[in-house]
Amino acid sequence: xxxxxxxxxxxxxxxxxxxxxxxxxxxxxxxxxxxxxxxxxxxxxxxxxxxxxxxxxxxxxxxxxxxxxxxxxxxxxxxxxxxxxxxxxxxxxxxxxxxxxxxxxxxxxxxxxxxxxxxxxxxxxxxxxxxxxxxxxxxxxxxxxxxxxxxxxxxxxxxxxxxxxxxxxxxxxxxxxxxxxxxxxxxxxxxxxxxxxxxxxxxxxxxxxxxxxxxxxxxxxxxxxxxxxxxxxxxxxxxxxx
Length: 242
Description:
Elements: H1 2-6, E1 33-37, E2 43-46, H2 56-67, E3 74-77, E4 83-84, E5 99-105, H3 110-118, H4 121-127, H5 132-149, H6 152-160, H7 190-196, H8 200-209, E6 215-218, E7 221-224, H9 228-241
Parallel strand pairs: 1-5
Antiparallel strand pairs: 1-2, 3-4, 3-5, 6-7
Helix pairs in contact: 3-4, 3-5, 5-6, 5-7, 7-8, 8-9
């Protein structure tokens, strides 16, 4: 390197009268945080989050929006394997910039989630839990994922099995004791997810069965679903196509 700085014009073959151009070396941005999904190895890189102030709930929402997994179907864990709870921040767990946080689905669910991502209906059916309550919850998760990914045939299969697109996914049956009814994101329906993702064919399917799904009911109060204006437009379009 020192030899490089001692070289003169003639050493590099620059003739007299030549023009030299100065260029800035561009460096690729470094993610502030990495999120690793344990069920398929997918990695989400976050560049615009403040590791000190970002809440775990905000990260859970990012995971839901990027992967399509509803909030009740996964948890976040730090590099030591500790579960990270939504009312805390990354700073509370000592998470440093550049660290990796892990998305963990329920034990034994990896095959079900991956089969859903592939749209493989037979594999989804064989991966469902034998317990009736857990199985029905899994089918609601599958329907929500199908709405995110635009998997029409899989979503229709779940509806035919008894799942309603106008009911929230909610919590796993084993965690209903800790449900937070004040959290509206746990009350999003598959029909809302289809709307957010612009899945018109799925929206048309859902609206043909549940036309009043734009309203989310939480604690006896009514809220329009997220981005209600665009949702309403999509739903009206779907109704016209019925």
